[in-house]
Amino acid sequence: MINSSVVAAENAKREADLRSDYDALGDHLARRGIDIAAIKDRAKSFGVAVPSWGTGTGGTRFARFPGLGEPRHIFDKLDDCGVIHGLAQATPTVSLHIPWDKADPAEMLAKAEEHGLGFDAMNSNTFQDQDEQAHSYKYGSLSHTDAATRSQAVEHNIECIEIGDKLGSKALTVWIGDGSNFPGQTHMGRQFDRYMESMKAIYGHLPDDWRIFSEHKIYEPAFYSTVVQDWGTSYIIASELGDKAQCLVDLGHHAPNVNIEMIVSRLIRQGKLGGFHFNDSKYGDDDLDSGTIDPYRLFLVFNELVDAEGTDGLNLSHMIDQSHNVTDPIESLMISACEIQRAFVQASLVDRTALAGYQDCNDALMASATLRRAFRTDVEPILAMARLEQGGAIDPVATYRASGYRAQVAEVRPKVSGAGGGIV
Ligand SMILES: [Mn+2]
User: Fold this and answer.
1) Ligand 1 centroid – CA 370 distance (Å)
2) Contacts of 210 (CB under 8 A, 6+ apart)
3) In the chain, how many domains are there?
4) In this predicted model, what pLDDT tens digit does every residue of 406-421 receive, in sequence order?
5) From ligand 1's centre to the CA of 275, what distance in Å?
């Protein structure tokens, strides 16, 4: 999608400086007993899935301002995902959303293969009504009081599994908007029972090598109560369903100041952490670009993940879940993937032997300083070298801008106005 001569020309401008910076960082890390080549290999091994819906411009409940050359369908989205991975080399998979991305699976596989992409977890949608559906989700879906509505929502999730199975996906993420807006509107106990009954029906259709992820969210679109509102509820769900059920943590789905890294630690301990939706937030579920508001929190989450490496059965699906309202989504997704990868690499620099020693002797100051020393290390030369060696761009955004990709696709993709699938 991006001419390789553009990538080569942009890299040529920056390669000498990069090599000098990389060597200097290598010397610095060697003094700390860290082999920079091993850390670079870890950076190369890291991948996070792009959400197909993130390639379109998002929106708010007030408005959506479309961008130029937005993808018209899943095949355009996969082209954009190919650009993102081609330049940033950190997003080898795409997470689909049904029905927004419904198309012939064989054609989707062929397009993905063209770009060297695979498919991560499938996402179902019972939080909005589709034109052809018989029953409305206005008052709920998997937990609706009406059995026919629940069954329609169950069938939709089963269809997502069937589509995903043809694409090589191995997981289904279930997030529902069900809840209530008024005290007394629903019986919270019976509503949860209905939800569990529906989830058990979906769970029964999971292939043996699949997992189902329960994604919690504190509020919105329901504003008084939400059926799957916190990690405790999500843990109950995953435990009751069985071994193939795990919890998915979306970083924006918590009350302000909640200690998410501790939730991560707890879920890993219980064998119930399945994956993440990465984003950042200031006030609520803002779906801002990863690492733009609180990069230290992102680092602390990865500190727990790196610490838990090697834990029996730990197999995490990393996905981005963001809404891009004022930026080019391709640029935001490339930068976000790099920021997530950065947090992973920084967390890989933590001196865990020293940290355990400080923890054991209650040296709070030095324990904290040990974490911050890793966080403060500028690992950009490692990330850039990993990209360069894998055929990507030293500077993904500058290279993307130099390529003129957006202007080219704008010529064949008409402007999409009003509300659309980009709103999440
Ligand atoms: Mn999410």
Assistant:
1) 31
2) 161, 164, 165, 170, 171, 172, 244
3) 1
4) 999 999 998 765 444 5
5) 10
